[in-house]
Each structure stands twice: as structure tokens, then as C-alpha cells.
Amino acid sequence: MNLTPSTLPRIVIIGGGAGGLELATRLGHRLGRKQAQILLVDRNPSHLWKPRLHEVAAGLIGSGDDETNYLAHGCVHGFDFALGSLLSIDSVGKTVTLDRVLSSADNTEVLGERTLPYDMLVLALGSRVNDFGIPGVLEYCHMLDSPAQALKLQRAFLESAIQVGAGRLDRVRVGIVGAGATGVELAAELYHAVHAMERWGGLGASGKLDITLVDMASRILPAIDPKTSRHATKVLEKLGVRILLGESVERVTADALHLKSGATVPCEIKVWASGVSGHDTVAGLKGLSLTPGNRIKVDHHLACDGAADIFAIGDCAAAPAHIGNALVPPTAQVAHQQAAYLAKLIERRLSGRTVGPFKYRPRGTLVSLGEGGAAGEFPTFRYSQSIFPANGSLAKVLYVSLYHMHRVALHGWLRAAALFLADRLRRTTLPPVKLH
């Protein structure tokens, strides 16, 4: 990381998720190190596309297989990287303070607190699931907000399958709270993973897996068209997933989910995939206007309310939709469009030009259903309320293409194609599921 004084405009991006890393890459290409000094900050040294975390949790990919190293990527694409977590913002003095970095081996200090200047600041902090203050959630439930959490869940699932194979457990029992995309995709992929474990590792747990999906909504995937939801329901039920709708969790214990209706869902592995909230760090940042869920309020240009030269994108931003009073959804699709828009805005602003407001263009929704394909829908025309459904194998092909388009945004077409080919070759020599 280059911290030497510079006369170039200093653009600091906090958060290397889908939006933050794409923004840093685009600005690096457009402005390089000649027209601006671009610095990406993240508490982790590498990036993994968040929509793939359920595959990491099921053991279908290793977290290292698809990670992008920030230092190496920045060296190639014209930006610098700093390791650390955001501690505070001084919007008057235009500085950010990063918390100290501790060693994962012995908890000793690797880097101390640092204060970095900025001319423009972009917050791309992401989000976490909302535990809603329910007792036991933080203590007993797995989350899927980071690769580390996904790996922890993968390890717990594998160990349970090993215990079933050894006769120490009767069944692998999993309770998932939240029937949105994350919960539905995880349920489907766990069934795929347990069959792969039996075929490739001899673990006889494929007929001994119980998954219960719990949601207070009246149907799974409540944000999409009912026809698409019904298709996904049929696929999950065919796999054997038990779906409990219109139910909410009152408390969580070590061995069960306890519902407000009085019912109990016995499960050793519990996953919380319900609700979206901003990180606790956001609540302590001065000068920002926040929603009750700790998301940062921004205007139609993604500028933070009441804070000059500070922008927010991705899940951490509560951005208004250009039609009606709704907010744009916290999805990777939105983060991608916001990164492209803000890169253009920053480039034009540095040359004294302006750009119109951000307009989210819905491109459709796709949800993976494991080997059973995918469920999806697409608007037939821009701003149209009519939906074109795409389910099964075609939807699966389109779903897989989303990740490759993310790779194209980061690496370009040639390198993305090479990475795709490397993936296919790796799968011919390795088991399709992690057994360690």
C-alpha cells in the first residue's frame, strides 16, 4: 500500500465485496495511478463472491478455489489495498481510521490503528443477517455472511455426516430459518452434497438427512412471482425438505428451534438466513443518516445524506428506487449496477462534469436448486410488471453465467474464460464435494 503524499485525488473504498471490488477495478482501469490514487480497504486479504457462500457451506467448492487476492488484483488493475476494518470517519477533516489488525495465530498486533486521508470516500461495507434480538440465535446458529462462517458450517455438516456413517448419530438434522434465496439454495445444495459424500467418500448419510425450512411468510421465495415460488417448492419437497410456513422462531437452544406456535424443530445444525441488517460498525459512524436496520441512507446519486463527498453502495446502502418510495433490494445485481454507475459518476466529477441519478434496472431473479436446476424469472420489458419464468436446466445455465459475468467485470473476458476452463479441468480430477 502506497501511503506517500500525493497531489492526485484520493479515492478510498471501504469494503471489497461485489460492489466495492468492482468499483475499485473499474476506477483502476479508468483513472489508474495517473489521474487518481485509489485505495481499497477490507478486513480480509481476499474476495469471495457472496452468492457462492452457500456452495462453500455445502462443501461443493472450497473458499480458496474462487477467491481473488486484493493485493495481486490491485497490482494488475491500478489500485492499492490496505488490510483493516473501519473504526471511524472524520467527515470534516476527511479522514478514516482503521482498527488494528491482530494475528490469527497468536492474537498479537500485526498493524496498529491508522488514519488515512480521502477526497472521496465510498462505503461498501456489505450486510449481515438480522437476528432480531431472538434469544439463542447468535449463540447457536450458523450464519452465511463470510467465508469463515461458511467454512464453519461446512465443517459441522461434514462431521455430522461422518458421525452418522460411524453409527454415532441416527440422522443429520438441519434447521434453516429463512426461506429466501439463501435458505432455499442452501437446503437444495446440502442434499446434493450428502449424496456426493456417499458416492465419493462412502459416508452413508444420504438417506438420513432431515432439513426443515422455517419462515413466517406464506410461501418460500416471497419476493418473487408465486409461480416461480411454487416450482421451487415442488423441487424442495421432492428432495425431502420439510417446509414450515407462517411460523416464527421464539428462541433457539443447542438442540432445537422453538417456534412461537409451541412447535419444536429438533436439529443439531441450525442456520439463520433471515433478514438483512447493517453491520454494528455502521451504528457508531458519526455524520451518517441511518435506517432502523443500520443501513446508510443515500440519495439518488448514492451520496450519503448530510455527508459531503461520501457515498455508499451495495447492501449497506438504503438507496431509493427511481419508481415509487421503495428501496432497491440488497442483492449482488444491485451492487454491480451501483459500482458501474458510481465509477462513471466519480470519473465525470473529477473532470467537472455531472451525471444523472442512479436508476436500478431489474434483470430478473435466479435461485439455484442444486442438481434440480434453478428457478428464475425475468421482466418481459423494461418497467413491465409481466414476468417470463425460466425454470429447470435453462435457468441453471443462466444462474451459473451470473458468476462468470462477475468474473468478467473483475478480470476481463480472456482471463474469465481461462478461469472457467480451469474450473472444468479441476472438476475432472477432484471429488465434487469437500471431504476434509
From TrEMBL:
Residue ranges of domain FAD/NAD(P)-binding in the record: 10-339
Keyword Flavoprotein: yes
Family: Belongs to the NADH dehydrogenase family.
Record key words, sorted: FAD, Flavoprotein, NAD, Oxidoreductase
Protein name per Swiss-Prot or TrEMBL: NADH dehydrogenase
Superkingdom of the organism of origin: Bacteria
Gene assigned in the entry: ndh
Single Gene Ontology MF annotation: NADH dehydrogenase activity
Pfam families documented for this protein: Pyr_redox_2 (PF07992)
Keyword Ribonucleoprotein: no
